[in-house]
Amino acid sequence: MTLSRRTLMMGLGSTTLLAACANGVGSRGPAMIDARADATLAQLYNEYPGTRSLGAKSAGILIMPLVTEAGLGFGGAYGRGALRVGGATVDYYSVAKASGGLQIGGKQYSHVLFFMTEQALMNFRRSPGFAAGANIEYAIPERGETLAAETTTSLAPVIAVIFGQSGLHVGATLEGVKYTRIIP
Predict the structure, then answer these.
(1) Distance from CA of residue 16 to its chain's centroid?
(2) pTM of this prediction?
(3) How far is the C-alpha of 137 from the C-alpha of 146, rounded, in Å?
(4) What is the spatial distance between Cα 126 and Cα 112, in angstroms, rounded to a whole number?
(5) CB hemisphere CA count around 111 (13 angstroms)
(6) CA nearest neighbour of 74 among 5, 132, 131
(7) How do the domains of the chain map onto residue ranges?
(8) Burial 100-127, CB ≥16 within 10 A → b, else e
(9) Ysc84 actin-binding domain spans which residues (predicted)?
(10) How many C-beta atoms lie closer than 10 Å to residue 177's C-beta?
(11) 115 and 60 in contact (C-beta within 8 Å)?
(12) What confidence tens digit (pLDDT) does each residue in 18-34 have?
């Protein structure tokens, strides 16, 4: 049996997307997501103390404890997390990412979205699926650096902090990210 290149790529893409869905959060429900969100937020605040002030000033925080990303030509990522307002979980969300281009590898990371205005939080919660785009300021801390709200990030309605990366994923891709409310 001979596989065409197209069939092989479709199979690898499907396998990658399915593998990305098994990111360790599991289906044990809200208690597991909340426990992982607590640990992730504690890790962020311990490793990057400047983020505490972002948390204190924010209207809400979306915590994605573990996002798994993999790709070979086509790729994808998936993770689940909790939206907190005033320190209490109010909703659960998934993040799904699709990409295509020259890429190979896999990685896992955590990320936290700080909603710096009530309007940004309201827009996120009311949308059927929030697509990340130009309205988010990304802050990717390097080991040993202090991450704080500078003038460029303090004016952004949403600040994303990506940290705790492991694995290797390289390439040049076009990608899209979507956050969707879920019932775990």
Answers:
(1) 17
(2) 0.74
(3) 17
(4) 19
(5) 28
(6) 5
(7) 5-182
(8) beebeebbbbbbbbbbbbeebbeebbee
(9) 97-179
(10) 17
(11) yes
(12) 444 444 444 568 999 99
